[in-house]
Write a structure and sequence with these properties.
mainly alpha; 3 helices; rod-shaped
Length: 75
C-alpha cells in the first residue's frame, strides 16, 4: 500500500523541460529589452540629432571658432 502511494520523480525529459522554459524566457526578455532600447533611447536620440542638424550652420560655427583662435591652421 505504501509503495503505490509514492510518486516517482521525473527523470526523463527534465533537462529538456528546464532548458525550454529558460530559453523561451530569455528570448522574451531580450526582445523586450531591445524594443525598450529602440523606443526609449535610439528614436529620441535620432530625433534630437535631426532637430540639431536641421538648423545647424557650419560656416557660422567655423567663423566663430576661427575668430576665437581655436583653428590655428587657417588665417
Amino acid at each position: 500500500m505504501a509503495s503505490s502511494a509514492l510518486v516517482t520523480p521525473q527523470i526523463h525529459g527534465l533537462l529538456y523541460k528546464h532548458l525550454r522554459f529558460h530559453i523561451v524566457g530569455a528570448f522574451i526578455v531580450s526582445l523586450s529589452v531591445a524594443a525598450f532600447c529602440k523606443f526609449a533611447v535610439a528614436k529620441p536620440r535620432n530625433k534630437a540629432y535631426a532637430n540639431f542638424y536641421r538648423n545647424y550652420d557650419t560656416m557660422r560655427d567655423f567663423e566663430k571658432m576661427r575668430k576665437a583662435g581655436i583653428l590655428q591652421t587657417t588665417k
